[in-house]
Amino acid sequence: MDPSAMASKLVRGSEVIPATPDRFVFQRSLLGTLFAFLQSPATPTGNVNMHNILVYEAQVSSGSSTPRFAEARIKKIEVWGAGAAEAGAATPLTVAVVSGSGDGAVFRDFPIPGATRAHVAIIPNFEYRDTWVQAVDTTTLFTI
Description:
The chain is an alpha+beta fold. It contains four helices and nine strands; from the N terminus they run E-H-E-H-E-E-H-E-E-E-H-E-E. The protein has one domain (32-143).
């Protein structure tokens, strides 16, 4: 096995989540602001955990703040920064995959003023993608 396949890497496109034989897999892409995921005053940075992700998913799908799933795993992280006009050329978007099951990889992109937002898409390392996290777990999964 190629050791580089085990590390986090910057990618493009989408990955299809295969069903596993021991559990039903429901794939859901969530699009929201950092404020919506953290449910706290808007800040330029934050720590994202599974509890916040699943509470947000429940609010979007049913209006309830009770998570619909007992556990979940993250297969891909994709983040866009503030508009280039708001952020300025010197403000990078930084996403860090927290160590633990993650490998601590950090990725960064800069906006182009008047043209594009900063954008980072990550498929985390194998152990991180393979780890099922309980809905009540508030351990930081990644930081923005």
